Amino acid sequence: MRKFLSRAFSEGSLREQEGIVRGVIKRWVERVGQESEEEGCVDLTRWFNLMTFDIIGMLAFGQDFNGVETGKTHFWISDVLGSMSQASLSDTLGRFPWAGKIYTLLRPGWLKSLMVAAERHQSYTIKVTKQRINEKTDRKDFMSYLLRDRFYADGTYVSDIQLAAHASDFVIAGSETTATTLAVCIHYLLAKPSVFQTLTDEILDKFDKEEDICAVSTGSLKYLHAVCLEALRIFPPLPLGLPRVVPQGGAIVDGYPIPEGFIVSTNPYAASVSPQNFANPKDFIPERWLGKNETDELNATRPFSLGSRSCLGRSLAWLEMNVALSRLVWRYRIERVGDEVDWEGESRMQLLWKKPKLMVKLAPRVREEKA
Q: Which architecture, in CATH terms, is 2-364?
């Protein structure tokens, strides 16, 4: 199944889909500027979410959630985000059955509301998937590749329900995670003016025109890459350890024998902020990714996982982060509004991160075109 899905995320496929991604980001950059001008400030945490959900909606279903255009969160997205906290609660209560019974007595409607949201999510996913299946279009998106490859030589095929399930996973995994990293980048850049200035200089020196910002052109921006890597390290977008089952015969993990059948995982947040792996682990230091600190164990952070189960959407995430950050910094001067946010203290670790607001003011840059 992974081989079937991977074709939609290949480098060649991504090049064909880049126009969709860049189109949403272009509209987003304009809209956040309008919002800042009209309201005096803009919450980039919320607007990054609107942008990434619009992108993944277009790629997964050919469905524009219109978050960027309206500035409003689609009901389906609200259900998805709400399910993250509910699922965390459900998982916790499942580990302590006695607590689950007490909680259910105190809040008898919580389980019912969770089931209603899950059914609404499933129903809407199937609806938009079928709409995309029935749509006749030459547009290249995830579904165009899945529909092309869904029938196998042995007569089996991937059903509509399976396609809907995969598309639903795309929406959850391919939106909130990228939005988190983008928000983390801006927060720490505002907290470290010298770092922000270095990144700004790199972007402004590279691009004469905003339209030149694309996947290929941003690929050479080493400091931008380091900034994103540091954001991924200090705040892994998926903060929970992904489970792996020890194979038959057992395995040796870090020198310890583990019996077969055991479930093991590494918590990415704990590994990424451990002083055993990184010097000054809570400090935002992009230079550590440029060879400036040889004591850091850079391989200790794996935000996209690794091996045969690594993240399929890695290249898409890099495209979104590189282009969105470059266009935002190229277009605007960014200033924090209000007191600095205690990002770590105010964030909540659920299945994904529940993040604080990131209130900023955006001022268009005044520049002279280079000769």
A: Orthogonal Bundle (1.10)
